[in-house]
Amino acid sequence: MTLKKPVKKTRTQKKSSFLEKKISKKADLRKKDVVKLKANSLKMSVFISLFALLALELFLKNLLLAAGYSIIVLAIVFVVLMQVPVIRMKKRVKRMENDLAYFLLDFIMELKVGKDFLSALRKICTDENFAAKEYALVINDIDKGSSIVEALRKMNTIMQSTIVRRVNSNLMTLYLHGNRTDSAKRFADELLLKQRIESKEFSGKMVVFALVFIAVSAIVPAMFASFILIGSYFMKIQFTALQVFVIIVIVFPMIDAMVLMLINSKTPLFLKQG
Predict the structure, then answer these.
(1) Confidence (pLDDT) at 12
(2) Per-domain residue ranges for the chain?
(3) Whole-Å CA distances, 152 to 134, 142, 155
(4) Mean pLDDT across the stretch 168-191?
(5) Which long-range contacts (CB under 8 A, 24 or more apart) does 157-164 make?
(6) Residue pair 170/104 in contact by the 8 Å Cβ criterion
(7) Distance of alpha carbon 197 from its chain centroid, rounded?
(8) How far apart are CA 102 and CA 192, in angstroms?
(9) How far is it, in rounded angstroms, from Cα 86 to Cα 89?
(10) N vs C: which end of the chain shows fewer Cβ within 10 Å?
(11) Please, where are the H alpha helices in the chain?
């Protein structure tokens, strides 16, 4: 009589939620990293919502209404914190795209002086720009045993960028079909032309931004001061000293800061670094 071996019970793996799958794909995070991010985000959002609950209860004098608002705060903070890695990845991609034109032109120059593909890539990756640092990771994958094509395709998967894919497609063509650099040179020129167009468009928008900032920082506060004086004499509008102090010292500078943040967000990255 043969004895049957006991069958080991395997635990069923918990399926990832839609949010976890989305963040894992867009931020290039492993499953355990996403789980850790989820736990940390939940802890932080609970802490902030409890603080909001206490503050709202003191202000509203209604515990039930304050609890409802704090739950909304918890949900918003949790979603925002979960999106932080995605935002970081988008910024990483933008920084890389900003340097790709010059990276590609430098790489073509290295090929023209007679270096082979891998030697040229290693030389360019010693530069200090952001694209060189990203391609240094490609070199690292190649040194670990990946082929050049596999390493470039891995970068495409991580970056999720059309421009990065097109640059890597040109690099693969150079690697597989020899030093025919015309196509890569044309694409690098296209990227530079795109940057020049964005620079001209921003110069036009900057005139409007400057007018808005002048109005918010100088004209509006002056009009507010006049309104206080006229209103107190003719329209019986009353402002306490504390209210005037808060508006002038806190509210107007906050508006100025928001306008500056808007200008900064609309400024092309290559102009910030230039």
Answers:
(1) 43
(2) 18-88, 93-190, 192-273
(3) 11, 10, 5
(4) 86
(5) 158/28, 159/92, 159/93, 159/96, 159/134, 160/25, 160/26, 160/89, 160/93, 161/93, 161/96, 161/97, 163/97, 163/100, 163/191, 164/93, 164/96, 164/97, 164/100
(6) yes
(7) 22
(8) 8
(9) 5
(10) N
(11) 18-26, 31-60, 63-112, 117-124, 130-143, 148-159, 162-177, 182-214, 220-230, 241-246, 252-266, 269-273
Q: What is the pTM of this model?
A: 0.70
Phi, psi of 230 (to 5 degrees): -70, -45
Amino acid 68 reads G
Q: What is the average pLDDT value for the chain, to the nearest integer?
A: 83
What single-letter amino acid sits at 71? I
Q: Which residues contact 196 (CB under 8 A, 6 or more apart)?
A: none
Name residues whose C-beta falls within 8 Å of residue 67's C-beta, 6 or more positions apart in sequence.
53
Instruction: Judge whether 227 and 270 are in contact, CB under 8 Å.
Output: no
Question: Which pLDDT band holds residue 237 (cuts at 50, 70, 90)?
Answer: low
CA-closest candidate to residue 35, choices 48, 21, 55: 21
Residue 72 half-sphere exposure toward CB, CA atoms < 13 A = 7
Q: Identify the CA nearest to 99 among candidates 265, 271, 270.
A: 270
DSSP designation for 29: -
CA distance 188 to 90: 21
Residue burial 151-184, b: 16+ Cβ < 10 Å; e: rest: bbeebbebbebebbbbbbebbeebbeeeeebeeb
User: How open is the CA angle 86-18-87, to the nearest 5 degrees?
Assistant: 10
